[in-house]
Amino acid sequence: MSAASPHQQRLEAIVREYLPFVWRVLRRLGLSPADADDAAQRVLLTVARRLADIEPGRERAFLSRTATHIALKAHRSERRRREQPVAVLEHAEATAPDPETLLQKRRTLARLDALLDELALDLRTVFVLFEIEGLTQEEVALALDLPKGTVASRLRRARQRLARLLVTRQIVDQASGGVL
Predict the structure, then answer these.
(1) pTM of structure
(2) What is the CATH number of domain 93-180?
(3) Residue 116 is inside which H or E element, if any?
């Protein structure tokens, strides 16, 4: 039995470390769980094909950019199909938290997804990568091939839009800034 090549070892390490990150980015960019699974596979196939082009230490930026492009392509394809995604119930594992905790978490995530759906895709993408996935503005700029000033501007506009939505949806009290 031969040992794995350095190329295969690096690919396996990237998959192990970054697959959850890729899936979260795809979900927060509006893909259903099933579509995010398919898109994550496409991202990983792209990584496998282009592994030699990915500079060590730049994997996260490459994955962000690839996931964003694949999510945008999926959105364009969905608009052409004019199909509405069907909500899929997720099954909790036996070791999961109690049902009330799970329900509260799902409601919170559903509210977040609903708010993110209100953002234009360019604003949403920058917001998700920076605020939710924790990329730096420089990493977001690199991932999306944008100037840093554009990233900062989109991030500011996304935050302003979300703040207005929180107030209009009566999630946050405008006077105190507290959650209602």
Answers:
(1) 0.64
(2) 1.10.10.10
(3) helix 99-117
Torsion-angle region of 177 (φ positive above 0: left; ψ -120 to 50: alpha; else: beta): left
**SS3 of residue 72 by DSSP:** helix
Pick the closest to residue 116 from 55, 4, 3, 26 (CA basis).
Answer: 26
Give the pLDDT of the chain (180 residues) as one tens digit per residue: 567 888 899 999 999 999 999 999 999 888 989 999 999 999 999 999 999 999 998 899 899 999 998 988 887 776 655 544 444 444 444 555 778 887 888 887 888 888 888 899 899 999 999 998 888 899 899 888 899 999 999 999 999 998 888 888 777 555 555 554
Please report how the helices 99-117 and 6-28 are oriented relative to each other, as an axis angle in degrees rounded to 10: 80
Query: In angstroms, rounded to a whole number, what is the distance separating the alpha carbons of residues 79 and 81?
Result: 5
Give the max Cα distance, the chain: 68
Fold classified for 1-88: Rna Polymerase Sigma Factor; Chain: A (1.10.1740)
Q: Where are the domains of the chain?
A: 1-88, 93-180
What separation, in Å, do the N-terminal and C-terminal C-alpha atoms of the chain show? 61
Question: Can you tell me the distance from the alpha carbon of 29 to that of 158, in angstroms, rounded to the nearest whole number?
Answer: 14
